[in-house]
Input
Amino acid sequence: EFMQASWDIEEVQAKGIQHLASFVKDGSAFPYLLTCTEVITLAMKTHTDSLDLQVEGCTLLLEILSQALEQGVMMALDESAASCLLHTVRKHSENEEFLSMICTLLMMVSASEVAAENLRKVGIIPDLLSILRRFLHNDKICFSCCAVLWSLAVSENNADQAVLESAVPVTSAVLQKHLHDGVVAESACSALWALTLQGCLTASDYEPTAALLLDALRMNSERAVLVKNGCLALASLVRLSETAALAILLDSKGSGVELIKDEYHLHFNEPGVAEALCLLMNEMVQYDEVMLNMRSQKMEKLLSEIKFQFPFS
Output
């Protein structure tokens, strides 16, 4: 009430946020802090020129969200709060350190379907792409923004088709730049999978994207989630075009079929990986030439192994 009574006075908002932050360590205060998120985001929007207030507000929201996720509480920010966060992002779009923090916040917020939909409604995707282009070198920003893109792209609402299409080259650039960073590469692979599912790639994207995903699998073969999502992205590509299937077979860095075998043997206890690999192979055998090649490489043997390993799946 104290904050709401004096929206226009920056010092009141700053003191209010600081006082709320003092309750973060008190577990019994958590349910009450959850009701304060709108007040915090509105204070940030009203005083966007004050970087200190933005940082303190963002830090407090991160604390509240972290506690919420730990306790299994899904915190869905409404459209007004999403708009406030977007306003803040635009105002401080050059401040790399602050953007790193607020992109982490957006990633945590977008875990909620409702919040993800509200972020999509207020038009945050072009801003995310702009941030990625500008700070392609920043692993933390790339990780967070790709995770938000994934959350927004998996939505069944395709109203942003043209905007999502423009996300393909940027996401590919992130993956190319951070191929050796498993955490970022995993996030970028997930985003590319969502974009392929939504049909955002053009015919000229199929071959280079397939090659890039194969590179990500080779360089991060121990990461089960990356392997699973990378294979799901490849399966979506192959479903769209035989070009992608041939790109997997004839990749200049080695046979994609051998890679599939290697990945299965590395993760033979992971049903999610096995399922993704089966889905990819199922898409590949839809093309006669590809199927003959796979047969010559004795893929039946691998399929029998998988069937034996997961008889009830």
Remarks:
- The chain has a mean pLDDT of 92.
